[in-house]
Design a protein that fits this description.
Layout (H helix, E strand, L loop, with lengths): L4 H26 L4 H8 L3 H13 L3 E6 L8 E6 L5 E7 L3 E8 L4 E8 L5 H18 L7 E8 L2 E3 L4 E4 L10 H9 L3 E5 H12 L8 E6 L3 E7 L2 E2 L30 H5 L1 H13 L13 H9 L3 H25 L3 E6 L5 H15 L2 H4 L3 E4 L8 H12 L2 H8 L3
Parallel strand pairs: 3-6, 6-9, 10-13, 13-14
Antiparallel strand pairs: 1-2, 3-4, 4-5, 7-8, 10-11, 11-12
Helix pairs in contact: 1-3, 2-3, 6-13, 9-10, 10-11, 13-14
The structure holds zinc ion.
């Protein structure tokens, strides 16, 4: 049988990438860490650690620091991550706005700008996006010292492997090859992904699910989206989409959804649906501090927290419906933690109590026993989700290799 040398080369390169990724991740998560500790934790030979850390040092991804030993004597050299040398541009495209942010590698936002987005076609959005990035680069040229990537997230079905936008609710797209287009224009690695899935990833890297392996994030905004993290990795199917929770039926007699079915979760809990219900009840004479002219979701949350009966009932009802869908997800995925994101979380106590009530009656006891339910600790209007895609490619080694192989 012929020996496949091509495979061998591929495997050797993959092994190299995985080893570099493992060391970089250990340094991020356990710094300051010595070379000896790195060798022990990674099970790699000390010579390999010396080689890998030398290259990471050369590319200014890590730095050495002196740590004073508790036993006295000479300080020991340890390694920490260096976050301020490279930067990444992260963009969140929502239905009405574009959020463009500059991050360093420690996920620190260095600059941000939020601009309204009009009803554009694919081509118009593309041109707009390119000119926006160009302008942002000009404005932030002092802060952008070494740009290593641009990441874009948006709602819809986004093929992050092929770099193609298959569907996004606010723009009519035809297999929009956004990655290739931005790569040609800006000549840096480009990442694209679904906004809520990316937010789930961000929560697992920088937020409240950092310490668990399996978690679910559900975001309520104009729609309902979710992301599932299993073994600290984003769950993806062949279509790069997963868990369209918004179209789980939670009310058989509910209103018709844009998808054609009746009583979808989305129609019960999105901001717009809560606001519409508030308005209707106010018009019918329900007594509340809310008024027909001021019953936006943030006011509803604020008054619910102050004990306004109508506002409280609206959040409670949304929470119970959300809890029905969360219970189904808990029964299927058995996560350690569920995180809720969106404006509705401005009323955390009422919301989480209602979600918990539904969960109590509709999920298996053994699966919910140690389950933690939290509100997101991240700002879901920031572009942190997009930055999580950059972090993901550093952690899987692919972007790391691109930096190491860059001769400049
Ligand atoms: Zn639906």
């Amino acid at each position: 049988m012929a020996f496949n040398y091509l495979n061998l080369v591929g495997n050797a390169e993959l092994m190299k990438q995985l080893n570099y990724a493992m060391i970089y991740r250990l340094i991020i998560q356990q710094s300051p860490i010595s070379r000896i500790q790195l060798a022990e934790s990674s099970q790699l030979a000390p010579a390999s650690i010396t080689k890998i850390t030398r290259q990471l040092l050369n590319k200014k991804l890590i730095k050495e620091v002196d740590i004073q030993q508790s036993t006295g004597g000479r300080p020991a050299v340890s390694i920490v991550a260096k976050f301020d040398y490279y930067q990444a541009i992260s963009i969140q495209l929502s239905r009405s706005h574009v959020m463009i942010e500059l991050y360093d590698l420690g996920a620190k936002s260095l600059a941000s700008k939020r601009i309204p987005l009009n009803d554009f076609t694919q081509q118009q959005t593309q041109n707009y996006l390119i000119s926006l990035i160009e302008l942002f680069c000009q404005e932030q040229q002092k802060k952008i010292k070494h740009l290593i990537a641009i990441a874009v997230v948006m709602p819809g079905v986004i093929d992050s492997v092929k770099g193609i936008v298959r569907y996004t609710p606010h723009i009519h797209v035809d297999n929009w090859a956004l990655c290739d287009i931005l790569k040609t224009k800006f000549d840096v690695p480009i990442f694209i992904g679904n906004d809520v899935q990316s937010l789930a990833l961000a929560e697992s890297y920088f937020g409240s699910t950092q310490s668990v392996e399996d978690s679910i994030l559900v975001r309520v905004h104009r729609g309902v989206g979710s992301g599932v993290i299993i073994n600290q990795q984003l769950l993806m199917n062949h279509n790069q989409s997963a868990c369209e929770v918004g179209h789980i039926q939670v009310n058989e007699l509910g209103e018709r959804c844009h998808c054609g079915n009746f009583g979808c979760l989305e129609n019960q809990v999105v901001n717009n649906a809560i606001e519409k219900r508030a308005k209707l009840l106010l018009e019918q004479g329900y007594r509340s501090k809310l008024t027909v002219d001021k019953c936006d979701i943030l006011t509803i949350c604020q008054l619910a927290n102050q004990g306004d009966e109508l506002a409280e009932k609206l959040i409670k009802s949304a929470g119970e419906n959300l809890g029905r869908a969360v219970a189904m997800m808990v029964n299927i995925f058995n996560p350690q933690c569920v995180v809720v994101a969106g404006e509705i979380t401005k009323s955390p106590e009422i919301l989480l109590n209602a979600v918990n009530n539904a969960l109590y009656s509709q999920s298996l006891k053994q699966l919910r026993e140690n389950l933690i339910i939290n509100c997101s600790s991240l700002d879901d209007r920031s572009a942190i989700g997009a930055f999580a895609l950059v972090q993901q490619s550093l952690f899987d080694g692919s972007l790391l290799m691109a930096i190491l192989e860059n001769k400049s």
